[in-house]
Amino acid sequence: xxxxxxxxxxxxxxxxxxxxxGPIGNGVLTPAMAGLATVGAxxxxxxxxxxxxxxxxxxxxxxxVGCTGLALRALRLPSPAVGGAQLLVLLFLVTGxxxxxxxxxxxxxxxxxxxxxxVLSQAFEQIxxxxxxxxxxxxxxxxxxxxxxxxxxxxxxxxxxxxxxAATGLVLLCVYAVPSALAGELLPWWTFVFGAxxxxxxxxADGSHRHRSWRxxxxxxxxxxxxxxxxxxxxxxxxxxxxxxxGSTVTAIGTEGSLPGxxxxxxxxxxxxxxxxxxxxxxMLDQGExxxxxxxxxxxxxxxxLLRAFTLDTYRPNEGWGLPDGPMPAGVPANGPLPAAPGDDxxxxxxxxQIEPVNWYDLWLPVYGSPRxxxxxxxxxxxxxxxxAVFRERRQRPGAYVEVASLRxxxxxxxxxxxxxxxxxxxxxxxxxxxxxxxTALARRLTSGRTNNxxxxxxxxxxxxxxxxxxxxxxxxxxxxSNALADFLLNGKRGFCEQYASxxxxxxxxxxxxxxxxxxxxxxxxxxxxxxxxxQDAHAWVEVYFGGHGWVSFDPxxxxxxxxxxxxxxxxxxxxxxxxxQQGQDVPSISAQTEVPQEQAQQDTAQDTAxxxxxxxxxxxxxxxxxxxxxxAAGAVTAAALTFARRVGPAxxxxxxxxxxxxxxxPVATGxxxxxxxxxxxxxxxxxxxxxxxxxxxxxxPAAIRQIQRRHRLRQIEQRLPSAADAAWDELLDECTDRGVxxxxxxxxxxxxxxxxxRHRLDDQGKNDLRTVVSTVERSWYGQGARExxxxxxxxxxxxxxxxxxxxxxxxxxxxxxxxxxxLRRRRPRGS
Length: 832
Prior knowledge:
Region (Disordered): 1-22, 321-350, 563-619
Number of strands: 20
InterPro entries: Bact_TGase-like, MFS_trans_sf, Papain-like_cys_pep_sf, TgpA-like_C, TgpA_N, Transglutaminase-like
Low-confidence stretches: 4-26, 213-233, 239-276, 278-287, 574-619, 650-659
Transmembrane segments: 54-75, 87-107, 136-155, 162-181, 187-205, 233-254, 622-642, 663-682, 688-705
Structural class: alpha+beta
Strand content: 5-15%
Number of domains: 3
Keywords: Membrane, Transmembrane, Transmembrane helix
Protein name: Transglutaminase-like domain-containing protein
């Protein structure tokens, strides 16, 4: 048989000494440059975190991660062990710096982990309710340390262990993406310069090392192994996938809807001194330094009105009120006369109000009452009659403008006689969403016996009083119930304006009354020349729709600092003036009929508790952390597999069976990646997880079946079973078929071998191994009693060498791996 000229392998064909030497060859320079690149990318946080205290934590965690990797690689520990140790060091640092109950101060025990969970929860709430740049509080510093620590570990693993520093660029780009999307202004120019320079230094350091290591390598294609290039390419591909997934989902942990693709378009745009259009049922109200936002002229002495920026019509259980998903409404140009607001028949007095924005930078233009027209407004502003908001697509610092508006307020008697009006507004204003039965029962009990919508709304409004245990505070009460709304209404009864407005609007919808949450500012204070509105006046209240009168304001927040306002239609009939002016406070008056003791409320709704417990207001709380842990484990196993592939690739011809990548790594890594994606999908919605698993099954199913078949045959060959020769020949023909070379099974063994050698351009070592395989197959098929004896001990080594040669000279494409042709073709029995 002749399958080509053969010559024994010589020492000149062995891989260069530097190649495959492992991470030790990188020395100190590459890890140092990887750490510098991480620090350079982390400087982008200057746009979203105040001060410079966080930068010290970034440097400390990066140095610890780099030194840990350097020390452990010097001891020649495997890459998974190094990555695990770096994660452990990060956990020790966070435990020691941000908790006070660690074992020996740094070792995390159950108490420390619980404390750390509370710290991270506070950080997430500060991100939700704050506006960038947020204060560098301890929770924020903890979150920054963990995030940059994980980035440092990933960059160190890619640059040093996997020898793919170019792939770190995708990870570092994701670090820039989050601050760029959240910051109200462009990031400082120097952070981009520093980041680009440090990344270039990392590439240069690695390039210099490769030049020294590969200076004496042979010409490409002669004896170099594709394993040396396929591993970095695979790392780049994996990093691209992880980077894109992380970049599009990272906001699920922080400020909702602030990155493109999050589902709310340009509506949820935090930053500057604008108001974030998303109210939260739990969290802290961080008002920060008082800044003047508007100067208002044209209001009469003692005239106190709420300044509305926008309204929210969508309630999301256990989150709060927000804007609907989708693009902004079309609207009409705002400069000039405006369509009549709901309930404004044009008969009331038109008032001109001059509003001068001082430090306002947002996409909303606040207005009073029912706007009839706007003057001195630049192009690009639009008015939506349904929501009552003036907006634009991009944030801007508007100039002074004049609003022509009707400030007329209906009387109590008129509101009692007003028709229901639910059919006059979109159905979204009456949709309560999924409610805890206890909340519905409370709303129905408060409104029992009321015959009109005003009396029902007033009864619910009066429930939020100090007599019923409600207290205004910038911090909510400790959580005692899984349902945030029921917890606030029945247990905690402590919070700020967003909790009160959110709760009252939901209760109104529970009894069929159209409602929405308005976000804007309280009345401010009069300094004699104009009325000044500051950041301390940011406020949320409820607007209720009455047929013929439009949207009417109800403010349930029990303010006690004189900033609130009780309109005439909510004052007792025997009160001549504003109770806030007479008493120095704004607390809704109480009637004995509406006071509901907490114990009685809980007893009356006991029958609904079981149903409430079965309702799910969102994903399991562990799904997000589970996805993160599964992704970290999958990344560690993938990095280990790629490191193994790189080390054994150049020396494949000298490898004995069982010395390659461990058989468990590929299925375990694949399973962990699928698990992380599934948990991440569950965090959104269970249906997405089901769809994702279905797609993964369809896409990865054929490849998995082919891999199982391949491993079964290889096991027969390695164990030298009597069927080893048949398994080797079947696997060889299937390997050729997967590469697009169909060899008929009716061909003789020698004819088939010649086609394999010629069409796949086997190198000399591969041809030698092919001869051994062919000889063993022929003896097994045609030798006397060969089928009943053990296989040739050289078969396993030769077949592994032949597969390695095919991988070098005819690498299989990704499409062929996902859709192996050997499974799709119709197989014919041997000899037919």
